[in-house]
């Protein structure tokens, strides 16, 4: 068993690194309404629009518990469902103009870069300890890249969105991609300097549709110098991608934050609404299923 596990780990890591190198050299995501065209357009310095929505963390936990999965699985699932709804509508509009009946393209390569923290622990408390101790050694970023393929398509059973997300995440868990990309980045920066490192990162990122992040926040209400905090909404600026999705939990709330280049995505509120609606549909499917099971028993 252990040997089989090790073989799969090594195999997956090699495959992931090959895809990473291929992306650096030529492999682009499918042209789609969420991705800016890389040539000529500068998403790095374009103004970004930032919008957010609150959804109930309890709804996400309900799905998680009923399907025996993790919060990450559910969050990726509702995102894939939301993006599929949004893209279906976008392609629907194009289709009406063209007078033919294609819905979503059959196979699309849409990927997200996820930054994975490689520190063993990273909570608020550890951060406070780190700052208090003034230990210079542990300061700085310690993160690797992972490329997550997004499954875009309309599912008959809404729970399939979450099942497929879990399969993607389980596969990515069994790989040392983050560790390797972190080491490679360190190596490149040490040997060739920050300029080359930055150029490589920009090249890879500009071929990928979006950036994605999901961070667990405080479980209880906190305050900052006596001011109670109502919600937490992180975002980022300066990377060459037209769409960034952050999920940030805070007590019993999950905040979805989108940062978009409005030249590419002119209706970010619609995209937020699609993700929120997907959560509702998936939650309702779970409730209906448990209802049926209870009736039978
Ligand atoms: C999200 O929740 C916070 C805190 O309750 C509130 O201040 C904010 O306006 C909410 N955002 C939206 C878009 O409803
Ligand atoms: C839930 O998932 C875990 C790990 O994936 C597994 O060990 C456990 O048996 C599952 N429980 C149920 C009730 O399916
Ligand atoms: C997908 O698009 C078609 C045509 O534009 C529309 O009729 C259908 O309701 C859409 N499906 C979903 C789930 O949004
Ligand atoms: C739909 O029409 C457009 C333009 O006429 C064409 O490029 C596209 O291939 C068509 N799609 C299908 C599935 O026929």
UniProtKB/TrEMBL annotation:
Any one GO cellular component localisation term in the record: plasma membrane
Pfam families, per the entry: WS_DGAT_C
Q: Kindly list the GO molecular function terms attached to this UniProt entry.
A: O-acyltransferase activity
* Entry's Gene Ontology BP terms: triglyceride biosynthetic process
Give start and end of each O-acyltransferase WSD1 C-terminal domain. 139-283
Report the transmembrane regions from the record: 6-27
Superkingdom, natural source: Eukaryota
InterPro entries registered for this protein in UniProt: O-acyltransferase_WSD1-like, O-acyltransferase_WSD1_C
Keyword annotations of the record: Membrane, Transmembrane, Transmembrane helix
Q: Which PANTHER family match?
A: O-ACYLTRANSFERASE (WSD1-LIKE) FAMILY PROTEIN (PTHR31650), WAX ESTER SYNTHASE_DIACYLGLYCEROL ACYLTRANSFERASE 4-RELATED (PTHR31650:SF1)
The name of this protein is: O-acyltransferase WSD1 C-terminal domain-containing protein
């Amino acid at each position: 068993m252990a040997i089989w596990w090790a073989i799969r780990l090594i195999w997956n890591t090699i495959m992931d690194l090959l895809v990473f190198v291929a992306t650096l050299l030529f492999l682009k995501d499918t042209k789609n309404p969420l991705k800016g065209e890389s040539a000529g357009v500068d998403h790095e310095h374009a103004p970004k629009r930032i919008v957010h929505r609150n959804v109930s963390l309890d709804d996400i936990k309900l799905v998680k518990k009923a399907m025996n999965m993790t919060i990450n699985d559910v969050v990726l699932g509702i995102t894939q469902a939301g993006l599929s709804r949004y893209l279906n509508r976008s392609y629907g509009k194009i289709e009406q103009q063209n007078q033919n009946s294609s819905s979503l393209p059959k196979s699309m390569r849409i990927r997200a870069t996820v930054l994975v923290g490689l520190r063993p622990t990273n909570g608020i408390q550890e951060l406070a300890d780190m700052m208090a101790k003034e230990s210079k050694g542990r300061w700085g970023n310690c993160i690797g890249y992972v490329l997550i393929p997004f499954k875009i398509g309309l599912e008959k059973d809404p729970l399939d969105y979450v099942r497929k997300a879990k399969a993607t995440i389980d596969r990515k868990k069994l790989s040392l991609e983050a560790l390797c990309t972190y080491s490679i980045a360190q190596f490149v920066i040490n040997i060739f300097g920050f300029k080359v490192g930055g150029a490589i990162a920009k090249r890879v990122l500009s071929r990928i549709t979006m950036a994605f992040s999901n961070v667990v926040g405080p479980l209880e209400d906190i305050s900052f110098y006596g001011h109670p905090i109502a919600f937490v909404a992180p975002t980022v600026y300066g990377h060459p991608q037209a769409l960034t999705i952050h999920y940030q939990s805070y007590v019993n709330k999950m905040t979805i934050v989108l940062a978009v280049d409005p030249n590419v995505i002119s209706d970010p509120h619609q995209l937020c609404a699609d993700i929120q609606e997907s959560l509702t549909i998936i939650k309702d499917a779970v409730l209906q299923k448990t209802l049926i099971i209870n009736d039978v028993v």
